[in-house]
């Protein structure tokens, strides 16, 4: 069987100060990778990089790269529906969730092209990128649908260079973001509706990312891997 090990590989994880990003960084380290953790603000082992600032992204790649693997987990949401969403709020969500991903992917792809040794990009999408948000979160759902589509386009660009580009699309993961969006009662109610009877955990996302980043994932590109407990079956 091909290996799930990331030994000897260098990975960058954005949004790594907490939530999915922190869990994915931990999982990749456990699989043997050397992981650079980045987030909007520096904290402990987490380096400061606002993914919406092109110069900061370039500085991070110059200082800490080259990377073999990049996971884009930085993201924000706003609960607002179309009536409550101002243009500024809409654009802010798109700036982080889509432009930020674009800037990081551009930097990673340029690095992969220069080195010619292939690479792995994993973007964190969402179930709402397929089906839209159940309520509110209008900008967020639009950003995640766009991320799914961008990954497929980049997968075609990257394929001749040995670069795979995939999306992990969670359902509802227990993090500070989902707690703020749904509240404890809302999360419990959601868990009860899940076919697997549970919410997702950050470790579930880490496992999917390690798989896609490892030799075991060599044949997968342009995929949106649903890790949603059966919330959406498509
Ligand atoms: N929690 C869920 O249920 C869920 C479901 C589907 C998708 N996701 C996605 O997973 C990713 C992580 O979500 P989470 O639940 O861990 O959220 P979170 O709010 O707990 O963590 C997000 C992290 O991203 C960082 N961040 C925000 N803006 C940034 C910027 N401009 N530059 C750098 N870092 C920035 C934050 O500081 C934070 O540490 C997001 O892309 C989110 O859309 C989460």
Written account of the structure:
- It contains seven helices and seven strands, in the order E-H-E-E-H-E-H-E-H-H-E-H-H-E.
- The chain is of the alpha/beta class.
- It has one domain (10-171, 201-227): Rossmann fold.
- The protein has a seven-stranded parallel sheet with strand order 3-2-1-4-5-6-7, sandwiched between helices.
- Helix 3 packs parallel to helix 5.
- The structure holds nicotinamide-adenine-dinucleotide.
- Nicotinamide-adenine-dinucleotide binds at residues 14-15, 17-21, 39-40, 50-52, 73-76, 96, 100, 124, 126, 170, 172-173, 175-178.
SSE topology:
Elements: E1 10-14, H1 19-30, E2 34-39, E3 46-48, H2 54-64, E4 69-72, H3 87-115, E5 119-124, H4 128-131, H5 138-158, E6 163-170, H6 176-193, H7 202-213, E7 224-227
Parallel strand pairs: 1-2, 1-4, 2-3, 4-5, 5-6, 6-7
Helix pairs in contact: 1-7, 2-3, 3-5
The structure holds nicotinamide-adenine-dinucleotide.
Short characterization:
Helix 3 links the parallel strand 4 (69-72) and strand 5. The chain has seven helices and seven strands; from the N terminus they run E-H-E-E-H-E-H-E-H-H-E-H-H-E. The protein is an alpha/beta fold and 234 residues long.
Keywords:
binds nicotinamide-adenine-dinucleotide, 234 residues, alpha/beta, Rossmann fold
CATH domain topology:
Rossmann fold
Low-confidence runs (pLDDT<50, min 5 residues)?
A: none
Radius of gyration: 17 Å
Bound molecules: nicotinamide-adenine-dinucleotide
Tally of contiguous helical segments: 7
Strand order of the largest sheet: 3-2-1-4-5-6-7
- Work out the count of structural domains: 1
- List SSEs in N-to-C order: EHEEHEHEHHEHHE
CATH architecture: 3-Layer(aba) Sandwich
- β-sheet strand percentage: 15-25%
Identify the overall geometry. globular
CATH superfamily: NAD(P)-binding Rossmann-like Domain
Output the CATH class name: Alpha Beta
- The overall pLDDT, averaged over residues, is 97
Structural category is alpha/beta
Termini Cα gap? 28 Å
Q: Count the strands?
A: 7
Biggest sheet, open or closed, and with what strands and sense?
A: 7 strands, parallel
Helix proportion range: 40-55%
């Amino acid at each position: 069987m091909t290996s799930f090990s990331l030994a000897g590989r260098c990975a960058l994880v954005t949004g790594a100060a907490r939530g999915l990003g922190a869990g994915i960084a931990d999982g990749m380290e456990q699989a043997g990778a050397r992981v650079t953790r980045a987030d909007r603000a520096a904290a402990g082992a987490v380096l400061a990089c606002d993914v919406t600032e092109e110069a900061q992204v370039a500085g991070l790649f110059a200082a800490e790269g080259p990377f073999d693997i990049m996971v884009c987990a930085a993201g924000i949401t706003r609960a607002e529906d179309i009536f409550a969403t101002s243009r500024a709020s809409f654009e802010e969500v798109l700036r982080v969730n889509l432009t930020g991903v674009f800037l990081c992917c551009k930097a990673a792809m340029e690095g992969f092209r220069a080195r010619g040794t292939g690479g792995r990009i994993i973007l964190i999408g969402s179930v709402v990128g397929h089906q839209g948000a159940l309520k509110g979160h209008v900008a967020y759902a639009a950003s995640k649908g766009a991320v799914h589509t961008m990954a497929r386009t980049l997968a075609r660009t990257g394929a001749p260079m040995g670069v795979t580009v995939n999306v992990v699309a969670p359902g509802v993961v227990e993090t500070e973001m989902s707690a703020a969006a749904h509240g404890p009662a809302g999360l419990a109610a959601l868990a009860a509706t899940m076919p697997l009877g549970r919410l997702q955990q950050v470790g579930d996302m880490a496992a999917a990312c390690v798989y896609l980043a490892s030799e075991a994932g060599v044949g997968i590109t342009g995929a949106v891997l649903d890790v949603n407990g059966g919330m959406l079956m498509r």
